[in-house]
Amino acid sequence: MKVKASHNRVAADGTVCGEAQNKTCVFQLQLCLNQSGNGCAAAPMKKRVKAHGSCAAVRKLKVKPDGVNAVCSSPVEVKVKTKKKGTREGKCKIVASAKSTDKPPRRDVERVTLVCKPKPGDCPAPLTVGSTTTTTLPCLPACDCCVQPVTDLARCVGR
Predict the structure, then answer these.
(1) Residue pair 114/25 in contact by the 8 Å Cβ criterion
(2) How far apart are CA 37 and CA 39, in angstroms?
(3) Which of 10, 53, 56, 57 is the most buried if burial means most Cβ atoms within 10 Å?
(4) HSE (CB half, 13 Å, CA atoms) of 32?
(5) CB 106 within 8 A of CB 57
(6) CA 84 – CA 25 distance, rounded (Å)
(7) Helix, strand, or coil (residue 150)
(8) pLDDT tens digits along 78-128
(9) What whole-number distance in Å separates Cα of residue 103 and Cα of residue 142?
(10) Domain 2-124 classification at class level
(11) Do the beta carbons of residue 96 and residue 61 sit within 8 Å?
């Protein structure tokens, strides 16, 4: 199970950052089941998967499973307001959990925090790479970056 955010970068810790316009950030979210590439096999599910959290419209974030097929919910607009009259960041925590029909059942819990920053430029800049293809490059001296995605090579430059 994954929570996808369009036009926003989801960090490794499950944080999505947005910059406020008129003291509010709008996040487009989708809840997806049985997505490939996450390291586990698809699980059969029968019950609808819903998200819950501390911000409005999160209850609309739900998806009905289709056996073991990959499926996503329709996009939902979730608004997060800044605090202290637009001077402090606002946050909203979202939790979605799914349970398979396997015996014993497998469980997956996704936690995402939406952060609304009051000033432009406060969010980390997204990676500006045109594609996410993997390229094999010759080894750099004093760097263990062989056979890594091009986006990972930036961390080796400072060594």
Answers:
(1) yes
(2) 6
(3) 53
(4) 14
(5) no
(6) 15
(7) helix
(8) 999 999 988 999 999 999 988 888 889 888 888 999 999 998 888 877 654
(9) 49
(10) mainly beta
(11) yes
Strands (E), 23-153: 24-33, 49-53, 62-63, 71-72, 76-81, 90-99, 107-117
- What is the β-pairing status of strands 15-19 and 107-117? parallel
Q: What is the distance between the alpha carbons of residues 51 and 157, in angstroms, rounded to a whole number?
A: 40
Query: Three-state secondary structure along 95-110?
Result: EEEEECCCCCCCEEEE
Q: Where in the chain is the domain with CATH 2.60.40?
A: 2-124
The C-alpha atoms of residue 107 and residue 118 are separated, in whole angstroms, by 36
